[in-house]
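Dear colleague,

Thank you for sharing your sequence with our group. We've completed the structure prediction you requested, and as agreed, I am returning the results in plain text so they can be pasted directly into your records. Please verify that the sequence below matches your submission; if there's any discrepancy, let me know and we will rerun it promptly.
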Amino acid sequence: MTSKREQKPFGVFFATEPRDPVTGQSIYATGGGASSSATGASDTSVTENKYNLVRVAKAEDIPLGESWKNLAHRLATAGYSAPPEGYEVPTLSFLTSLVKKLGNTAGLTSSPTADKGSIDAISTTVAHAENAPLTYVTAEGYVGYIDPAKFPEHGIDSAKYHAAPKFVLPTNEEYSRATSVVSNSFLATGGRDATVGDFVNAIDAGNKVIILDNKLVKADVWDSNKNRPNNASAYLARKIAGDASLPFLPGKGFTQEFLDQHAKAISSLVKVVTIVSEADIPRAVGESVQFLNS
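Please find the predicted structure tokens below.
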């Protein structure tokens, strides 16, 4: 996720209004088209509800059809909402290559707060460019941050964006948990404390995790003033490797007890890929594809 919660808000977006190839129905609905009334949670039309928001009480209430469920790789992405130097270009290149390699087996989960340079904008851009399914999810507290005026000038198809259902959870915690419910894999590209919370939820759900440790990002690993990670990918990579110099993040469920209890799962479910320069991206993508397909 990105954050206004700082980390990319858990988003459920699809590059188009995705439909089951057999039934012709929206993959989000059990019947009918993908409008905000698809879940029964709201009867507001897209005309009246310009961002096509669909409010749900919990992650399990998000209506996902068979086309989405049958995707081999339903990848939730997390990273920065306000990117530091060295983040946007390599992340866009990595995710574009990854989705290309996975082909029609992949869909993305992101947030609708797609400000330029954020992981949400990157995920939306890649999904639109590659015609990949995209599921948007966010929390009620982040709805006010949706602002197309802050989107990148190129890459996001406005019609696709506005048509896509955007599922809204009541709390940040349920929004983060929803990332692991809607998806079956997780990609951390940086970010701050919200990425760590998403990581915890992904491991709890038994989802595969890729941590992109991008050494090009100009951000300290830990922010002592705010007492939180400032580069969550580097932070997670170091903590998983046993670095005792960095604090834990108990507010997000990331503790020594969590690592101890999930040691076996983490050893099999987590892959750290490191890039030091953009020339490393093809190798990192190859390692990630091999891991996801294993």
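Summary note from our side: The CA atoms of residues 203 and 267 lie 11 Å apart.

Kind regards,
the structure core
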